[in-house]
Amino acid sequence: MTKRGPLTDLGPIMQLAYLPSDFDAAIKHWTEVVGAGPFFLMENIQLGEMTYKGQPSDAMFSVAWAYWGDMQIELIRPENDAPSIYTGEYAVRDQLHHVCIVVDDLEAARAALNAAGAEILIEGKVGDTGGVFYADAGGGPGNIVEYVKLAEGGPELFAMMREAARGWDGSEPLRKLG
C-alpha cells in the first residue's frame, strides 16, 4: 500500500476559488448558468500581519462567496497591485485559482506543509482569532491550497450563506456584507 502524503488528513476541501478577469461577468455566470448563489460580497479586505513569501504586504482584495450545493465558491477581485497571490506569477485567471481547507490548528497545518516541502506563499491573521496560509506544495500557479482557521463568527457566517442558497429563487444575486 502506498503511503498517503502529509497533507491528506488536514481536512476536506470546502471551497473552490477563482480570480476572474471580469468579476461582474463571473457573478452573472455562476448565478445564471451554474445556479450558485446568492453571492455575498466583502470588499477591501486586508489580512492582519500579512506576508507574501516572507515579506510584509499590504495587498487588498474583495471576495464574493456563494454556495453551490455544499461547495463554497469564492470569486476574488484584487484591489491593489501589492505583492500577493492575486498579482504576479500566481495570479492565474479564469480557471481554478486555489482550494480551501478549514483547519482547527494552523501549527499542525504548518508542520504538514513543512513535511511536504511546501512553500507558504501568504500568511496572515483573519480577524482577532483566525489565521490563514496559502501554500504551493509543488504544483505551481493554479494549484494553491488555502488553510484557514476561521475567526470567531466565521462558521456562523458561512452557515448563513449556505442556508441562503437552499431554495434560492435567483433574486438579489449579489449582497454586500459589512
Automatic annotation (TrEMBL):
Pfam families for the chain: Glyoxalase_4
Span of domain VOC: 12-150
Name of the protein in question: VOC family protein
Source species: Novosphingobium ovatum
